[in-house]
Amino acid sequence: MADTATGPEHPAPVAEATGISKRFGATVALRDARISVAAGESHALVGRNGAGKSTLVSILTGLQQPDTGNLRFSGEPAPAVGDIDAWRSRVACVYQRSTIIGDLTVAENLFLNRQSAGAVQPIRWKQLRLRAEELLGEYGVAVDPAARAKDLTVEQRQFVEIARALSFGARFIILDEPTAKLDARGIGRLFDKLRDLQDQGVAFLFISHHLQEVYDLCSTVTVYRDAAHILTAPVAELGHQALVEAMTGESASVAAVAESRPPAARAGSEEVLEISGLTLPGACEELSLSVRAGEVIGLAGAAASGNVQVGEAVAGLHRAKEGRISVGGRSVHTGSVPSALAAGVGLVPEDRHLQGLVNNRSVAENATLTVTDQLGPLGTVLPARTRAFAQRMIQDLDIKTPGAATPVSALSGGNQQKVVVARALATDPHVLVAIRPTNGVDVKSKEFLLGRIRQVADGGKAALIVSDELDDLKVCDRVVVMFHGRVVAEFDRGWKDDHLVAAMEGVGTPLASTVSGTDEHGR
Ligand SMILES: Nc1ncnc2c1ncn2[C@@H]1O[C@H](COP(=O)(O)OP(=O)(O)OP(=O)(O)O)[C@@H](O)[C@H]1O
């Protein structure tokens, strides 16, 4: 920004970073990058997977030191490394993954390490709870201070983290993909809260791969590409196409996946996946669904709909109380992962951290975990074959990594997700169950991933995409919508966004109706 004058009329930016460079070994994560967030501003930071966003966040929050560059908060130099309290009073970050401790109560989490006035004074639990109640009340967060943190919803947990940040005095909060695990209503409530806080002078740096959220929430946007700052502009002056072009450096149309019409499933083709009368306690009741060879079916639903559990059950992760799941006509023992694997089910799990990756292992090992039997004779695993196999996947899915031997933990979030998808595809599954497969993946890489899932079906297999992301669902031949454990609607290709969203929210579409037509893009 050209105007750097400060004073009562022009307060210094709450955060300003200039000339920031950071390397990890041979990887340049940031090159002479910059950002400036004004007081009370809602500023978006966008870029493709691996562009350097999370690295910037770790520098802005004092977790990592830049190799070069300057960092100031409200005009003052950044605190010394390790002065945690000083950093906390300037900036806080709400991550996609929780930083609060599940076994502690909300009150304990809020006042962790500051329960009592002095080291020798005992903790007064009742007082702690009252202070927590007061604090949560002040920021309008309706959460019981006595509740265990692990029992909170993602949304409640984020609100607690925001309240905790504000209570340290921070007036600058970074949100790193905060909506990734929220459904539409949860996102709406989060945005309402952020707007309230913004009215009170709190500034945000908002990171998201959902560009519509940038338009809905932010006034300014900064784009990083290949470790460098590309532009900063008022959101209102930058159209969607221009924003994507800045992110990708290409002028290609962004809507390639949505607009490319995949071939319809072959009429009369065999049923590859059949779910009949499935009851999973607490998740779904008497649910039936079938997917034919050549089909990609969407199983849509909001957070409590049960769609994720149904997908997981197909992969053997949940035992059914009643009902049957069969793949290629063969029954799968519900609750048995080996049985599902043997039947040819591949899974992209919901949480790549909990169910997906082995962090300290290489990209090659992670990508080939499911196919070790193909990597050498008689139970041996040949490193050269593993590398070659992984190399193909790295190219196939456009995974940004220095090499196949790089530990998967050194990859950016979106590239880790691609490794998870690569692993599921490696087995050449008969049925691919992909749960929110493009979570954390940038707009361009989404095309690759969804295109690859489409190819599974086009090759005569079947795919089930379990998601509430409209972009994920647009590649599907048919979308089945669940609400509170039951199928409430079914949409053929060409559905309208608002109809599908309404069905996921449990309004509108009557039970089992089939809705089709032309969507707003004329498809
Ligand atoms: N600890 C690390 N060790 C080695 N390389 C790293 C490390 N952290 C990040 N990198 C590399 O730095 C680059 C920037 O990664 P970063 O996580 O900042 O990207 P990002 O823009 O946040 O991506 P995403 O959208 O996928 O989250 C990537 O090439 C990544 O592999």
From TrEMBL:
It comes from the Bacteria. Pfam families: ABC_tran. Residues 15-251, 267-509 form the ABC transporter domain. GO terms for molecular function: ATP binding. Keywords: ATP-binding, Nucleotide-binding, Repeat, Transport. InterPro entries: AAA+_ATPase, ABC_carbohydrate_import_ATPase, ABC_transporter-like_ATP-bd, ABC_transporter-like_CS, P-loop_NTPase. PANTHER family: CARBOHYDRATE TRANSPORT ATP-BINDING PROTEIN MG119-RELATED, GALACTOFURANOSE TRANSPORTER ATP-BINDING PROTEIN YTFR. This is Sugar ABC transporter ATP-binding protein. It comes from Streptomyces olindensis.
